[in-house]
Design goal:
Radius of gyration: 14 Å
Number of strands: 0
Structural class: mainly alpha
Low-confidence stretches: none
Oligomer: single chain
Strand content: under 5%
Number of helices: 4
Helix content: 25-40%
Length: 120
């Protein structure tokens, strides 16, 4: 499978997973992890002092630390959200460096439910 085919396959997988996650609304509902589908990594706009992890990630990889339930999303710290943002190469629509944890959590929840995804 060439890189374009793999990216297309991963993007289709993301859409299916987001469809599942969009139905998750109670604290104990399961969330499925999204694979990485955007090339590259960048320091999140909302975490300018973020220390870049040494991990190398590829298209199709899953983060080891993805929250498994809706409730666990709401327990994420700003640092954990910054790690997820770096992994996905996506700020989840948050550009304010002073954004509160609540804003970041809500933005990430929209992200995993497919409400603010960016195409590769």
């Amino acid at each position: 499978m060439d890189s374009d085919q793999k990216l297309c396959f991963v993007e289709m997988k993301v859409m299916v997973i987001c469809s599942h996650n969009a139905k998750s609304c109670t604290m104990n509902d399961e969330l499925l992890p999204l694979p990485k589908w955007l090339y590259g990594n960048k320091i999140p706009m909302f975490a300018p002092d973020f220390v870049v992890p040494l991990q190398s990630v590829k298209i199709g990889d899953f983060p080891a630390y993805f929250p498994t339930t809706v409730g666990s999303v709401y327990a994420l710290t700003k640092h954990e959200l910054a790690n997820l943002s770096y992994f996905y190469n996506d700020d989840f629509g948050v550009t304010n460096p002073d954004a509160s944890r609540r804003v970041l959590v809500n933005a990430f929840m929209k992200f995993v439910q497919g409400q603010c995804l960016h195409k590769a």
